Amino acid sequence: MDKTNGIRRQARDAEWDTTFFRCVAEQACDAILGIRLDGSICYANLHATGMYGYTRDELCNMSIQALRAPETLGDFAELFYRASGNGIMFRTMHRRQDGRMFPVEVNSRGVDFPDGRIVVSIIRDNTINEKLTQDLQEVRVFSDCLLRAANVI
Fold first, then answer.
1. CA 145 → CA 16, 35, 114, 133, 151, distances in Å?
2. CA 94 to CA 78: how far, in whole Å?
3. Of 95, 94, 92, which is closest to residue 105 (Cα–Cα)?
């Protein structure tokens, strides 16, 4: 294989990789956000638009702080700093466009791009898991009450 064919093949492979990962991001069942080190959002996948209720353009003109519940902003700087480095996974509360708060699990990691470092965050709506955990706790409390009542009889 000559040098020209090798370069063409590399370009074709790079284009295929880019297309593949763009499709993966758009088909993901979690929100994926790219966040600049100043906190501004520079990328939002399709799931993010549905989860938050904003268009992609609206999200890309916002800061990540605008999506956090106000009461969770106290630890934002520390978590974002850790995310921009080796990465971090944490749970917090986010806010939809209509103002409703919802629990999320966030997995973030800093990635170097040609035009600078970006924090890539994969965000999962944890509403169902939180509800199931709460329901399970209520069942445990109820079953404990039944067992204590059975021991009294």
1. 60, 48, 61, 19, 10
2. 17
3. 92
